[in-house]
């Protein structure tokens, strides 16, 4: 990250701390106001073509013990991040949680990692600075890329050029925590196929799908990390590549697609940076379960509740999603993408995906 970006991040953090001080100085109860992060407070931004937070707000205020503790933790975290930037160091979200154990105020220590993660998200929103610019890293996501792409990656030992087929093993190229440090040099790909599971990703690579169809295969590793979503957005915006998302046929997998295309509720403040609205769903559909007579599992109560919730989710208010969800609720079944192997190991690469890609006009 450039020194200019580091300086800007530091300045915005200090401004937040100064705002607390100014509120004290004016005799006001310190507070911090943020958008309410629920699905009822996301709205469609037609100009950006993404889902963003609406006008509802929540306030972190010191007028209660609970609120005062939240602001105390924010102040300690701001000081930690400022020192980290000053020293040009970095840390992981997990390390921040444990580091708080050493803070001199027990009231400022985090009780769970979810709490520290949420505070970093709060600071992102109010400062309008991404956590990557705070030098905060997630744990390794394990997401990998395989395909006809030559890129240049910044490392502590200087830049290095990597071809994501010729210079990597079967595992592929591991996506760095901040993919904005990558420079695209050459690309011979025609589209991006992002895949939910490692098993299916391995099947595609073993069958040479990336070679035969000039595809960049991205392993999402379940719910995709921010770095993965950012890289796919860059593939679309900068390389003009269609992006497709291949998942299981269950409500949780539909949310994986939703986070790629529409943005997630918890990171709606970053939708313009992370979401790819043009991404197309090529995952297993409830209608495929019926058409291909695939092996299935029954929907659990939590699956049914999740599907019914998606029918009310503004990100899934299209005729396509309503139809597919209603089909799934009607048949009461779910299926994994690996279930396509019931029709042969090569069925997914020889028939299913080529047929779907042709229907979508991608090949």
From TrEMBL:
Span of the signal peptide: none
Residues binding Mg(2+), per UniProt: 196, 248
Enzyme type, top EC level: isomerase
Residues at the active site: 98
Gene3D superfamilies per the UniProt record, alphabetical: 3.40.1360.10, Winged helix-like DNA-binding domain superfamily/Winged helix DNA-binding domain
EC number of the protein: 5.6.2.2
Keywords of this entry: ATP-binding, DNA-binding, Isomerase, Magnesium, Metal-binding, Nucleotide-binding, Topoisomerase
GO molecular function: ATP binding; DNA binding; DNA topoisomerase type II (double strand cut, ATP-hydrolyzing) activity; magnesium ion binding
GO CC, any one term: chromosome
InterPro entries: Spo11/TopoVI_A (IPR002815), Spo11/TopoVI_A_N (IPR013049), Spo11/TopoVI_A_sf (IPR036078), Topo_VI_alpha (IPR049333), TopoVI_A (IPR004085), TOPRIM_Topo6A/Spo11 (IPR034136), WH-like_DNA-bd_sf (IPR036388)
Cofactor(s) for this UniProt protein: Mg(2+)
Location of the Spo11/DNA topoisomerase VI subunit A N-terminal domain: 69-135
Single Gene Ontology BP annotation: DNA replication
Catalytic activity: ATP-dependent breakage, passage and rejoining of double-stranded DNA
Topoisomerase 6 subunit A/Spo11 TOPRIM domain: residues covered: 191-357
Ranges of residues in domain Type II DNA topoisomerase VI subunit A all-beta: 139-188
Role summary: Relaxes both positive and negative superturns and exhibits a strong decatenase activity.
Family: Belongs to the TOP6A family.
Subunit structure: Homodimer. Heterotetramer of two Top6A and two Top6B chains.
Protein name in the entry: Type 2 DNA topoisomerase 6 subunit A
Organism of provenance: Natranaeroarchaeum sulfidigenes
């Amino acid at each position: 990250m450039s020194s200019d970006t580091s300086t800007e991040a530091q300045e915005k953090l200090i401004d937040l701390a100064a705002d607390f001080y100014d509120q004290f100085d004016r005799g006001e109860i310190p507070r911090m106001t943020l958008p309410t992060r629920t699905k009822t407070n996301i709205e469609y931004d037609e100009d950006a073509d993404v889902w963003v937070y609406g006008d509802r707000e929540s306030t972190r205020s010191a007028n209660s013990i609970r609120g005062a503790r939240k602001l105390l933790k924010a102040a300690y975290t701001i000081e930690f991040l400022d020192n980290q930037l000053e020293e040009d160091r970095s840390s992981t979200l997990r390390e921040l949680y444990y580091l708080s154990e050493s803070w001199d105020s027990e009231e400022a220590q985090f009780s769970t990692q979810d709490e520290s993660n949420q505070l970093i998200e709060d600071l992102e929103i109010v400062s309008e600075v991404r956590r990557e610019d705070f030098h905060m890293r997630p744990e390794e996501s394990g997401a990998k890329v395989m395909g006809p792409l030559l890129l240049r990656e910044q490392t502590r030992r200087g830049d290095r050029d990597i071809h994501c087929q010729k210079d990597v093993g079967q595992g592929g190229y591991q996506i760095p925590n901040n993919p904005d440090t990558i420079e695209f040099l050459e690309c011979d790909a025609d589209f991006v196929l992002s895949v939910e599971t490692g098993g299916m990703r391995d099947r595609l690579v073993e069958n040479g799908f990336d070679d035969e169809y000039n595809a960049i295969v991205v392993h999402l590793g379940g719910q995709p990390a921010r770095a993965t979503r950012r890289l796919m957005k860059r593939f679309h915006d900068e390389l003009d590549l269609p992006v497709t998302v291949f998942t299981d046929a269950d409500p949780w997998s539909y949310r994986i697609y939703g986070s790629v295309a529409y943005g997630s509720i918890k990171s709606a403040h970053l939708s313009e940076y992370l979401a790819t609205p043009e991404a197309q769903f090529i995952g297993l559909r409830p209608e495929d379960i019926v058409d291909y007579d695939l092996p299935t599992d029954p929907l659990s109560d939590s699956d049914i509740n999740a599907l019914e919730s998606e029918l009310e989710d503004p990100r899934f208010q299209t005729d396509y999603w309503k139809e597919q969800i209603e089909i799934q609720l009607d048949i009461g079944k779910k299926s994994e993408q690996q279930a396509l192997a019931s029709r042969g190991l090569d069925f997914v690469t020889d028939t299913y995906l080529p047929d779907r890609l042709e229907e979508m006009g991608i090949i």
